[in-house]
Amino acid sequence: MQFFIDTANLDEIKEAQDMGVLDGVTTNPSLMAKEHIQGPEAIMAHYKTICDLVNQNVSAEVIATDYEGMIKEGTALARIDDKIVVKVPMIKDGIRAIKYFSSRGIRTNCTLVFSTGQAILAAKAGASYVSPFIGRLDDIAHDGMGLIAQIAHIYKTFDFSTQVLAASIRHTMHLIQCAEEGADVVTAPFKVIDGLFNHPLTDIGLTRFLSDFQKAQEGVQEEKNNQTIKEVADAE
Ligand code: E4P
Fold first, then answer.
1. How far is the CA of 211 from the centre of ligand 1 (A)?
2. Catalytic position from the list 14, 34, 83, 87
3. pLDDT bucket at 232, cuts 50 / 70 / 90
4. Are 37 and 70 a contacting pair, CB within 8 Å?
5. pTM of the full predicted structure?
6. Which of 31, 81, 168, 179 is deepest in the core (most CB within 10 A)?
């Protein structure tokens, strides 16, 4: 199972990369806007900086929604770096564009997927990744996790090579359940990945180990001191 971080924030990407568990990054136009990255040149430069920070898989989303526009933009994005995965929305022209890119060896991530039918279309077009948005489905009282399970089951049954990239992850349980349901990749905000580290028993256990170690060291030191005092007394 792979871990991607869902952010365009360089500090978060660096910190997650330093943890040693990161397999990639997903961004979207909202996340880029949050970092105040504006204009085509700044956007391209920001993607390049992200690519230089991580080992593989940087999803960069096209803004165009027509076929020709997506081809032009996606081709330019793919030229930035081999790590770029062109993120294309789940619309008719998007599926055509995914077919175009996949036939040319350009990796794609079909985004804004909310149904199993959409995921089948993405796989048929040859998408490298399909991104079902779990949190946004849960927000409207639909079963996000059920969608992951169904897509994973169908892809396995028909041996589709498209990987299930669970997106719109809100909390650590989402991430763990996605793993259980067979998602190949989970992309999550930094706080969710970081949250996996936490367990009060780990903290309590570590504090106790260190304090027992400290006590043992003090005991050894006390024994040494007593021995020195004895040797001095014996010499007198
Ligand atoms: C995925 O690639 C998207 O960037 C992301 O997961 C959307 O998440 P949100 O619903 O929290 O905006």
1. 43
2. 87
3. confident
4. no
5. 0.91
6. 168
